[in-house]
Design brief:
Strand content: 15-25%
GO molecular function: ATP binding; ATP hydrolysis activity
Strand order of the largest sheet: 5-4-1-2-10-9-3-8-7-6
Oligomer: single chain
CATH topology of the largest domain: Rossmann fold
CATH class of the largest domain: Alpha Beta
Pfam families: ABC_tran (PF00005)
Keywords: ATP-binding, Nucleotide-binding, Transport
Bound molecules: adenosine-5'-triphosphate
CATH superfamily of the largest domain: P-loop containing nucleotide triphosphate hydrolases
Order of helices and strands: EEEHEEEHHHHEHEHEEHH
Organism: Murinocardiopsis flavida
Radius of gyration: 19 Å
Protein name: NitT/TauT family transport system ATP-binding protein
Largest sheet: 10 strands, mixed
Number of domains: 2
Structural class: alpha/beta
Number of helices: 9
Helix content: 25-40%
Shape: globular
């Protein structure tokens, strides 16, 4: 398949760079394994500017979750560093929130929706009046004001994931990490949740790193897409998504540029898989 023509990557502008919101430099992670070390992330260097929405795609098992755990301070890299707003990440940072794929396991079934959203704010030391405000605002933002007193198990999967998003948003994070958050919901709900996340991102001053295995989702949501190689992963390619800022599930996906971008990302992922099968290593020398 011929590679789709793309404009040169414009993500690295000239002139002095402002301080990035998230700075990943030479990140490397090798798991001890069971007597045999497993190199998951070979060398990742990238940055997210303040307020950016960046999607990460890559072949299955390439190290996306490993990367996110390192970014969230849940796991120490073997070498390299992660900085959030200029401060090294050495444990879970106070101004970062994560939304995981498995909403069923991330919500407490014995707590109401309101209590689930409020809990991290109590742990953060937010005062009672402000907590109430944040919980109400975030539940309204995800369209769940009427379900505040329900328990998670009384809600559909899509609604539970909305609760998880509300909880992350209420925390007022500077950076929101999302790990395949819509992989377990049906296609229609998924479209609604994609639009919800873009809407929240545009209204709030938050930087988003969104990991997905779905190329269409990455192109639809992101301002930039980073393509990871197969494990041990390196940054294979990146592209700026030069689609109009207003995204629409029908119009955007019909845009010929959308088709070009998704074909490009698809070809890159195929190349990553082919390279790893040929050499047993990442696609870059
Ligand atoms: N705790 C661990 N010990 C040893 N190896 C691990 C561990 N966790 C992950 N790995 C290996 O590291 C590599 C990357 O795994 P990771 O889960 O980060 O990939 P992923 O891209 O998130 O996968 P998926 O696409 O299936 O969600 C894989 O080869 C995996 O087997």
């Amino acid at each position: 398949m011929p590679e789709p023509a793309l404009p040169p990557d414009t993500s690295q502008g000239s002139g002095p760079m402002p301080e990035p919101m998230l700075d990943v430099v030479g990140l490397h992670k090798t798991y001890p394994g069971d007597g045999r070390p497993v190199e998951a992330v070979r060398d990742l260097t990238f940055r997210l500017e303040h307020g950016e929405f960046v999607c990460v795609v890559g072949p299955s098992g390439c190290g996306k979750t490993t990367l996110l755990k390192c970014l969230a301070g849940l796991m120490a890299p073997t070498s390299g560093r992660v900085e959030l707003a200029g401060r090294p990440v050495t444990g879970p940072p106070a101004d970062l929130a994560v939304v995981f794929q498995e909403y069923g396991r991330s919500l407490f079934p014995w707590l109401t929706v309101r209590a689930n959203v409020e809990l991290p704010l109590i742990e953060k030391g937010t005062g009672k009046a402000r907590r109430r405000e944040l919980v109400e605002e975030s539940l309204a933002a995800v369209g769940l004001s009427g379900s505040a007193d329900a328990h998670p198990w009384q809600l559909s999967g899509g609604m539970q994931q909305r609760v998880a998003i509300a909880r992350a948003v209420a925390y007022e994070p500077a950076v929101l990490l999302m790990d395949e958050p819509f992989a377990a919901v049906d296609a229609q709900t998924r479209g609604d949740l994609e639009d919800l996340v873009r809407d929240i991102w545009r209204r709030l001053d938050v930087t988003v790193l969104f990991v997905t295995h779905d190329i269409d989702e990455a192109v639809y949501l992101g301002q930039r897409v980073l393509v990871l190689s197969a494990a041990p992963t390196v940054l294979q390619e990146e592209v700026r998504v030069d689609l109009p800022e207003e995204r629409d599930q029908l119009d955007t996906r019909k845009d010929p540029r959308f088709a070009e971008l998704r074909a490009w990302a698809y070809a890159e992922i195929q190349r990553a898989k082919a390279d790893v099968h040929r050499s047993g290593a990442g696609p870059r020398e």
